[in-house]
Amino acid sequence: MLPPHGGKLVNREPKSPRTKEHLQKKAETLHTITLKPGEVKHLQNIAHGSYSPLTGFMGKNDLNKVVKDKTLEDGTVWTVPIVLDVSQEKAEELENERQVALLDEENRYIGILDLEEIYTVDKTEAAEGLFGTTEEDHPGVVNFLDRDEYFIGGPIKLIRSGFEKFYKYLLKPVETRVLFKTKGWKKVVGFQTRNVPHRGHEYLQKSALEVVDGILIHPKIGEKKVGDWQDKIILESYDILLDHYYLKDHAVMSIFPADMFYMGPREAVFDAIVRKNYGCTHFIVGRDHAGVGDYYGDFDAHKIFDQLADIDIEPLTFDYAYWCKKCGQMVTDKTCPHSMEDRIAPSGTKIRSLVKEGDIPPKEIMRSEVAAFVANSPSPFVQEV
């Protein structure tokens, strides 16, 4: 099993009930910041070690290095911003404070941040570096530019986790590492998803299983753009697939509580690093990983791993997969001699369109049990608020 990114699995959780009680009492004496749901997930992921080696929200030097060089200040590969923004009014309130209490939207104390830095950056310039564009048609760009003017950085201490909706699916990195060891898995492949499973996904997963001992199916659960699948639908559809089509000794599912960045190749590297922290040795990178619209090339997420320093976890890159009517199975250009006229692409866009029109996706692109479930679900997609 690979060591965590940076060499040590971060743990910022209270070590005992007494420590938790002490942190709670301390928090009640401090100025407060209310975190948005995505920031609550970041806090939890930092505390659990999912974001190792990060011990808190990024300071200015780390953020600038991530934007320009895809590394932290110390040279460790890191590709996405894990930051906490505040208004000018809040920044002025905290100017002379050494610690700040962190609340969720229900006003529960969930953590304490040791305040090391309050700073600003040119958000437009940062967005260009992170997303490759500043166009506001890009949902990741919009989310980043909508942040408040100031950022605060410093290590955190968790008081309590704030992500509970799908808690039964949640395993921490320390738990998956124990699970893999108990199962005797020395090689484990991670699979990131924000979609319900179609035959192409299953093909990638089972192809990867031919060279490893087990797979961690690890849906990213959090805020998504309008039209994406609801988290509940993703999880329940995978429950169906795992029950009917996977060997239980070789496949497990947990959740990665995080919002989508829609950062394409940068997010592919980030997703691989996170699964490395969970104990995976390999990571599946499919076509247009974490992409949106036409902002990234279909295989940019494959190429980026060759452009960065080695992050230890091995990317398993895959080409397009299709159902070939003549072969009678899932194929790729490497395995099938037939033309595109004989192939059916398991397109996520096509599946969503069929479901929205009240049709059941055909068995060539989605397992019948999964297709029936998603087609008969009353509200399978993220709606406009």
CATH domain fold name of the largest domain: Rossmann fold
Please tell me the overall pLDDT.
Answer: 94
What is the general shape? Answer: globular
Low-pLDDT runs: none
Distance between the termini: 43 Å
CATH class of the largest domain: Alpha Beta
How many beta-strand elements? 16
What is the CATH architecture term of the largest domain?
3-Layer(aba) Sandwich
Quaternary state of the chains: single chain
- Structural domains: how many: 2
**How can the largest sheet be summarized?**
7 strands, mixed
The total count of helices amounts to 13
Query: Which class of secondary structure composition applies to the elements?
Result: alpha/beta
Helix share, percent:
25-40%
CATH superfamily of the largest domain: HUPs
Notes on the structure:
The chain has helices at residues 17-27, 37-48, 60-69, 88-93, 123-131, 139-145, 173-183, 199-209, 231-245, 265-277, 300-307, 348-356, 368-376; strands spanning 32-34, 56-57, 84-86, 99-103, 109-114, 117-119, 150-158, 188-193, 214-221, 251-253, 256-257, 282-285, 314-317, 322-324, 329-331, 343-344. With 385 residues, the chain is of the alpha/beta class. It has two domains: 17-158, Sulfate adenylyltransferase (Roll); 167-376, Rossmann fold (3-Layer(aba) Sandwich), CATH 3.40.50.620. Strands 1, 2, 3, 4, 5, 6 and 7 form a seven-stranded mixed beta sheet that branches. Strands 8, 9, 10, 11, 12 and 13 form a six-stranded parallel beta sheet that branches. The chain has a three-stranded antiparallel beta sheet with strand order 15-14-16, covered by helices on one side.
